[in-house]
Amino acid sequence: MTGWQTLFHKEVLRFWKVSFQTVAAPVLTAVLYLLIFGHVLEDHVKVYDRISYTAFLVPGLVMMSVLQNAFANSSSSLIQSKIMGSLVFVLLTPLSHWAWFLAYVGSSTLRGLVVGLGVFIVTLAFARPEFAAPLWILAFAFLGAALLATLGLIAGLWADKFDQLAAFQNFVVVPMTFLSGVFYSIQSLPPFWQTVSHLNPFFYMIDGFRYGFFGQSDTSPWLSLAIVGTAWLAVSALAVNLLRTGYKIRN
Amino acid sequence: MPAVSFQAVSKTFTTPKGPFQALNDVSLDIEEGEFFGLLGPNGAGKTTLISILAGLARASSGRVTVLGHDVQSDYAAARRKLGVVPQELVFDPFFNVRESLRIQAGYFGVKNNESWIDELLENLGLADKATANMRQLSGGMKRRVLVAQALVHKPPIIVLDEPTAGVDVELRQTLWHFVARLNKEGHTVLLTTHYLEEAEALCSRIAMLKSGSIVALSATSELLQAASGSVLQFKTDAALPPALAAVARVTGRIVQLPAHDAAEIESHLAALRVAGVPVNDMEIRRPDLEDVFLQVMGEHA
């Protein structure tokens, strides 16, 4: 293995060795959402005409799990090793900023996708899935995970303490995912909140992902792809630059 | 080409109280194969200097090279040549000892080096801990793993930042035996330590750092020879007269008094007799490195 592959492998082992907590727990959380919201809202909420609410909910929950876990992985790995001091083992190596980027974003993307797949498999017991456009499913799962993994990398570099990271997660990541249309179609919102939703980049990830399943979405998947892709390129440029300059890790 | 070259290195930190100059124009060359000691009191800048060498920090000005490779512009080549044992007792709790070593080697692109890993484990007394998780190890054992991690890619230059702080006698013996062997085999060693008897025994050349500047840089033997006078050493349970207490180095019952010449030794003894201080196990000896260190630090007070 080359250097970046070793770091990638180490980062995968890091979450896989505690997969009960990093994979099984988020799967359970998502399934609880499906059970409770599906039960309460199945007969009350009408989304797309031919799709049951539970079926509508599945892609949203899968994507939410992908996003939150991709973010949690890179950010918690970095802050832990910063606070424990074990980041020094990586800092002392010849690994370039690109190697760091590939390894941290790659492993966190993988964690997001593994959790998302787990959620999807369990939800098969509750709703029969459709695969109208599978390539879109893969594209948005991958891009969404990579975008949040990269954001997690930035947050992990920036945060000095666990509570700063928790604040970022609780006040930015969670609200933006919840308000992105995981639980509802934004068509059901008043016009003002529809406009606000269109400013939330998370909306495009979930909407585009859902298009892959139903061939139907609130906005064009091409627009979603362009926005999510551009956002990922932008945060990646920032992340690579922070790594290159050693922001907060090489004082 | 020097193994390590510090060229006019300065480092200023911004602190809430304003800028703090940790290093002030430090220039220093360490030749290949040397066993070099970097000494100084806490806060002198030793760790800052090593951090800049290792790429953990950046110099505010000046340049550092490792076997000709600039630690900034050519960092990958420079870091491949360095094996750094950090001062803090850090570890990755997710892995066992052997996994940690394999991963560390992998970062440097080194593969299939199980026989070297086995040799490291054997020489550092870790062979029976290979499959133990890092969390289960005692502090001393964790320290050994840090040394093994620093050496796992066979670096020609070994940097040890206070490796024996808080470490038991057995590990010190093991560690110095092994490091001395590596030095004999051609590895360059850069050591910082608070244990001056270790530095005196191991280092062929020494730099002393104080408040970010080099205040002494010389072969260990020359430093010792240049130290003037002798040391009057004895044991006592009584308190010293104030005039002597001011210049004495006291370690529990052991008192050490510097003296320039025989007359000063006589006057020390006279003062002790007048004060009624009982003097046991008295000897007069040549200054050791600790005396030299205190003298040099005193001159630059």
Please summarize what this structure is:
The complex is a heterodimer of chains A (251) and B (301). Chain A has 251 residues and is mainly alpha-helical. Chain A has ten helices and no strands.
Please explain how this structure is put together:
The complex is a heterodimer of chains A (251) and B (301). Chain A has 251 residues and is mainly α. Chain A has one domain. In chain A, 75% of the residues lie in helices and 0% in strands. In chain A, helix 3 (53-84) packs antiparallel against helix 5 and helix 6 (134-158) packs parallel to helix 10. Chain B folds into two domains: 4-224, 3-Layer(aba) Sandwich (Rossmann fold), CATH 3.40.50.300; 228-285. Chain B has eleven helices and 14 strands. In chain B, the strands form three sheets. A six-stranded mixed β-sheet of chain B has the order 6-7-8-3-9-10, sandwiched between helices. In chain B, strand 12 (249-251) and strand 13 form a beta hairpin. Chain A binds chain B through residues 1-3, 5-7, 9-10, 13-14, 17-18, 81, 84-86, 88-96, 246, 250-251, and chain B through 13, 54-58, 75-77, 79-80, 82, 84, 86, 88, 90-95, 103-104, 106-109, 111, 149.
Structural class of chain A: mainly alpha
Summarize the helix and strand pattern of chain A as letters: HHHHHHHHHH
Q: Level of helix content of chain B?
A: 25-40%
Task: Work out the strand percent of chain A.
Answer: under 5%
Number of domains of chain B: 2
Order of SSEs of chain B, N→C?
EEEHEEHEHHHEHEHEEHEHEEHEH
Topology:
The complex is a heterodimer of chains A (251) and B (301).
Chain A: H1 3-16, H2 19-41, H3 53-84, H4 88-91, H5 97-123, H6 134-158, H7 162-178, H8 191-198, H9 201-214, H10 221-245
Chain B: E1 4-15, E2 18-30, E3 35-39, H1 46-54, E4 61-66, E5 69-70, H2 75-80, E6 82-85, H3 97-107, H4 114-123, H5 139-151, E7 157-161, H6 169-184, E8 188-192, H7 196-202, E9 205-210, E10 213-219, H8 220-226, E11 230-235, H9 242-245, E12 249-251, E13 254-259, H10 262-275, E14 280-285, H11 289-299
Parallel strand pairs in B: 3-8, 3-9, 6-7, 7-8
Antiparallel strand pairs in B: 1-2, 1-4, 4-5, 9-10, 11-13, 11-14, 12-13
Helix pairs in contact in B: 3-5
